[in-house]
Known about the structure:
Blueprint: H1 29-32, E1 43-47, E2 59-64, E3 76-80, E4 85-86, E5 89-95, E6 101-108, E7 116-121, E8 132-135, E9 139-143, E10 147-152, E11 159-164, E12 167-180, E13 193-208, E14 212-223, E15 229-240, E16 245-253, E17 262-273, E18 281-286, E19 292-296, H2 309-317, H3 329-332, E20 343-350, E21 353-359, E22 367-372, E23 378-383, E24 386-392, E25 401-406, E26 412-420, H4 441-450, E27 466-476, H5 482-493, E28 498-499, H6 502-507, H7 522-544, E29 560-561, E30 566-567, H8 583-594, H9 597-610, E31 625-626, E32 638-639, H10 640-643, H11 649-655, H12 658-665, H13 701-716, H14 720-732, E33 745-747, E34 754-756, H15 773-784, H16 787-800, H17 804-811, H18 825-835, H19 838-850, E35 864-866, E36 875-877, H20 883-900
Helix pairs in contact: 7-20, 8-9, 8-20, 13-14, 13-15, 16-18, 18-19, 18-20, 19-20
Protein name: Tat pathway signal sequence domain protein
Domain PcRGLX/YetA-like C-terminal alpha/alpha toroid: 495-904
Pfam families: PcRGLX_1st, PcRGLX_2nd, PcRGLX_3rd
Amino acid sequence: MPGFGRRGFLAGTVAAGAAAQLPWLGTPIAAAAQDSPAAPDEVRLGWLEGGAPAETPGTTWGVPWPKGALPADQPFALHTESGEAVPVQTWPIGYWPDGSLKWSAHSVGPHTAAEGYRLTPGDGAAPQAPVTVQEDNRTVTVDTGVIQVRIPRRGSTLVESISRDGVEIARAGELILIRGDSPEDGDEGTSRRERFIGRTDTVTVEQTGPVRAVVRVSGIHRARRGGREMLPFTVRLYFHAGAENLRMMHSFVFDRDGQEDFVHGLGVRFQVPMRDQTHDRHIRFAGQDGGLHAEAVKGLTGLRRDPGEEVRSAQVAGQPTPPVATFPDNVRTRLHLIPDWGDHSLSQSSSESFQVRKRTKEGHAWISVDSGGRAAGLGYVGGISGGLAFGLRDFWQRHPTQLDVRNAASDTSEATVWLYSPDAKPMDLRFFHDGLGQDTYEEQLEALEITYEDYEPGFGTAEGIARTSELLFWALPATPSSQRLAAMSTAVSTPPLLTAPPAHLHGAGVFGDWSPVDRSTPAKAEIEDRLDFLFDFYRDQIDQRHWYGFWDYGDVMHTYDADRHVWRYDVGGYAWDNSELGTDIWLWLHYLRTGSAQAFRLAEAMVRHTGEVDVYHSGPYEKLGTRHNVQHFGCSAKQVRISTVANRRYYYFLTADERVGDLMHAQIDVDQTFLTLDPSRKVRDDVYEPDPNALSIGTGTDWSALAIAWLTEWERGGDPIAKEKLLAGVETIPQLPHGFYTDGERYDIDTGRYHLLEDHGISVSHLNAVFGQVELCSELIDLLDDPAFTEAWLQYCRLYNATAEEQEAELGESLGNLNLGQGHSRLTAYAAHRLDDAALAERAWAEFFGGAAGYGPDIEWTTTRIEGEHSLNPVDEATFVSTNASAQYGLAAIQNLALIGDRLPN
């Protein structure tokens, strides 16, 4: 059966002249440019968090451009506000249909950061020492001009060595997995553990400089004994010209059913040569709010006999101590009697607690050092002649995590960053109940009526979910100062990112219907205040409710339980949100229009979660996502509405993130899943046997998820069949008897075309448009200028919230009692805008303020403090809030303001 493969896909490393390689994009650039709008002379860029970061380990970002303004191979120059040229690497990551540049990606290496920059078309500066990549049959070697890194093409070593100025700083980098056969539920602790090491299968060089190089390593963890394999991984290593660090993006897939295989530890480990005397060797762990655990392997402070202030102050500062021969005799002759503390560990067991311990060596007791709240996730081991700093992003948010230093008193120390701490309880990914007798569809539908849980035996599996972690490693010439360590820990926890302002993003015409914040009238200001209220409320709820943890961080809850003063974390489909009703899209639009760093970081964490944990990347449900549930993978509704690219593309184009690019690319043939799993299996009254040329793929939630994947692939310059299938749907949906309202349509998987199998009249669901279809269709209409498709979509927008009489007059029957009236006011607003219809605009605002299935006019937009015996922790409660309503209110408010804000009644 012909499907369509991933042939011809061009990664984000497309070189200059890319448009010439992509003739299927559309009109040649030279022709398109005849009537092109002028490109901005410059784009002002600033750091997301504001100011100038103290540590810039290298950063990559995306910038959009108006349609037809620039050719796809346009070079760019970057200058500071004061005019200093900054070496920059540029490549295209998105194209308009005419082949002109839509999104450019840019990367800079470490430099003394300025507060602001100017990006202009033109030739950019080259680095004095470009990053270089050399390949042979055995090894890939990357040289940043400061460090040299050797990456084997095969075997159990991920990174062979990291050297600086001819000195090896670290070696034998490897991926560690500790597997157990039991979750250790009882008090016996009988789990048998075995160690797996990541084994490299494929190494691909994705970028070669001059400013940025990227190496992709793929493989699987293999047991040291017996050869058993599990948890396939993809690791990307990022290098920048002039950098003394490398960045690692570590992704793995949990390819087990969770019943017999339990992860007891998952980490990245390096061996670090130790060349200095033990009193000139240092261990550092960053704590909370700039706190630092800073000690030497052999301490010279606090002794009964004083080595002298010069010795003590040098050791505390991590600087070379005076020669031992100059020590007082009563200290020098007794140095061997001072213990060497070779092992140090920082374990983050929860979002609120970390503990630091140390011991002299294996076989001896651990001594408690101290504990604290939220560690920054940075460590260092080395000495006055060099060492390795290592950091894990979202360290406390993704607990349990851990940083380990072992054998620092020997010739070779060991530094391990644990993505999942071996000191914690093992990962337990079993389903949370025994099925409760729900063996038939009838019983399962009954459960929906009481707990809103869509259960089905065998579907609540974690097999195929994934997680991506971000790490930084520095090869340093000496122990860094406390000030440098503080800057490095900030770079780990909040990586510096350059961004374009909302005005430029909006002016480029990307991401559909939104506009920058506008408080020019009291009515607009009131809506803006409510949008801020909702964002601030969820931001605070994440912290107050402790929505953290390895698998949980990045998601929010679905519905509130006012009786218990908690979100319904344990009630079926009311628990984790899993991006239901467009939560991701709402947060991204909130960022686009505000430029808020907090909004970006919250949406970023959600992308990392919903794109990895809520979607299957292997196994029987590969490419599908999971509906909201007590466990992210628990619901039996496995659907494309959750795996939709609509939730990922904002982050990809703003950051050029290759991992998110992989996730989006994987969705281009997601229509194949309808051959193996029928989303409507529980509610059918007929026998459905999937016919590849007549699949039951609706034109709402289903088609929008397929189409946004194809549109994004088309934008990125990928598989041409993505464009063909997208345009086939655009052509044939309007040909159906009732357009988007048709019941009885069928989809041809080979062509992407729709046809009528049997006319059943009209059909509509309140969910059809709320998982990205509104945004998709708006973009398609602007991109394609297809009158028939435009008319079909405008019909859907006009009629959804129309009166029964209006619906019946046009469709032959009414649509019945539909839900989400407030959220769908944005459809009415879209029709009002496109048709320049004042009556529709008035109706749209009436629908919005009416608040049907959302937030009505009687709501008091305030919170109540709950504390004492009423709540485990003090929390702010807004009992009227639900995430469905918040996402739809947010999207409706943002899009209505953009489309018909000039017709907002006072």
